[in-house]
Amino acid sequence: MISLIRAEPQLHTPMHFFLSVLAIVDSGFSTANTPGLLGGLLASSQSVSFAGCVVPMALMTRHGTAECLILAVVAYDRLAALCRPLLYGSLSSPRLCVQLVAATYTASVASSALLTGSVSSLPYCGPNIIHHYFCDIPPVLQLACGDRARAEAVIFPPAALILLCTITFTLVSYGFILVTICRMRSLEAQSKALSTCTSHLALICLFYGTTTFMYTQPSSRSSTEQNKVVSVFYTVIIPMLNPLIYSLRNKDVKAALKNRCLGLLPS
């Protein structure tokens, strides 16, 4: 998707620019822990060093925060395109698009530094077994032998704030979009737009539902098995579905992909 959007001139639009950024974030999100997870399943030893645990945790936190923010930016772009088409050029100018992406990465790096720094600064004196598929903040917190309450007070409110603000903005934006779609006179246009928006909303609700479950509750051993299952959705399944839902359901992307594939075939 990234290569296709960069190579095809007709895809050089704000919407596809944001979709390419979303694809980059998804790639980083899914590869932050999945290779290590697969390697641990294949290797006889599944031990990991403290640094080898903190670094993937920081990367996943950064990409997860960026995912929330980019989804909100995509919702903003669709809101501007459908609800304010005459002002779309100024509401999604190239300069503003770059600024939004830069702000997203800055906020995600700051959030990752705060959350990961709070976790890594705690004393760990045993046990040293993580009851999870990878080094995530909630299961690692369970291993701390110091006062976890202070760290949780630093970690969970910012995480909850990011999730609450982004999901509220995203859902409100799609609410306005759905209202605009319902006012369309063409039933065929309504059907196509509603199909795309409902797919987006289903994916958004699945992502925010799983991440909210993981990062807005204090650590608890009773929810360990549930957390394992939930983590698979937002680290593997959702990043895999995002390109299919956001890009391959787009007629411009499908046309560009068809032209690119036909161009590669021998004459």
TrEMBL record:
State the SUPFAM superfamilies in the record. Answer: Family A G protein-coupled receptor-like
Q: Which domain of life is it from?
A: Eukaryota
> What PROSITE patterns does this protein map onto?
G_PROTEIN_RECEP_F1_2 (PS50262)
Q: Where are the transmembrane segments?
A: 159-181, 193-209, 229-248
Q: Where in the cell is it found?
A: Membrane
- Cite the entry's keywords alphabetically: G-protein coupled receptor, Membrane, Receptor, Transducer, Transmembrane, Transmembrane helix
The record gives the membrane topology as: Multi-pass membrane protein
The record's listing under InterPro entries reads: GPCR_Rhodpsn_7TM, Olfact_rcpt
Pinpoint the G-protein coupled receptors family 1 profile domain residues. Answer: 1-246
* Protein name per the record: G-protein coupled receptors family 1 profile domain-containing protein
- The organism's lineage? Eukaryota, Metazoa, Chordata, Craniata, Vertebrata
